[in-house]
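re the bet — no i am not wrong, look at it urself. input seq straight from the record:
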Amino acid sequence: QKAAQNLKPVVPIKFCISSRTDTGVHALCNSAHLDIQRAPGKPAFSEKQLVYSLNYHLKPEPIRILNAYRVTNSFHARFSALSRTYIYRLLMGCTHYSEIPVFERDLCWAPTGGYLNVPAMQDAAQFLLGTHDFSTFRSLNSETPFQSPVRTILQADIRPSSGFLSQHYEHRGLEFWELKFRSRSFVYRQVRRMVGALVAVGQGKLTPHHIKELLEIKDSRAFPSNAMAPPSGLFLKSVEY
């Protein structure tokens, strides 16, 4: 918003963002809409001008505008979204946090104990697909009483991935994996709780069938204590319209 105010709009600019994320979570791509009104006689900004101008004023910030599109007045960055895709990056093979590559710090989660039983995690993830009451998988906040806990998970995949420059330290035996989730929307901290429960399955603390049981309980207090994944490994990948 501060960067946009430097474009000297007639009316103060307000960004409406597609979704909020917890502190420490990253976004590979997020979207927002804004209305920008220029002084009389000045032509409207082109999409390219807007991208260059905003990025010029965002230089010191860890944020970049990738694209701009002119949309209809009925468009809303949050309410027009068809789905949102999150990825969670796991690092396996670390017996101590000091083994996490320094360039991956705060960009993945290395659960204690080294390796995880990925096939068991993949079996467990299938229970999350479809429409369910995700009460057990949401943290409580001020909005909880006003929001439905029912959500539809369209995708829940666990696949091998690559780390930053990982081809240069293959001898260290580290493995990166990505968990991908897609839904129209998620309840508060749902993705971090789903990841934490799946990791508990991978560690043998839960069985795949426990995930089904947690869903059926429909009570946030039934979620295993200290099982929520940290925010550092979570990335909003894209918002689909």
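see?? The longest strand covers residues 150-161. told u. also The mean pLDDT is 93. so pay up
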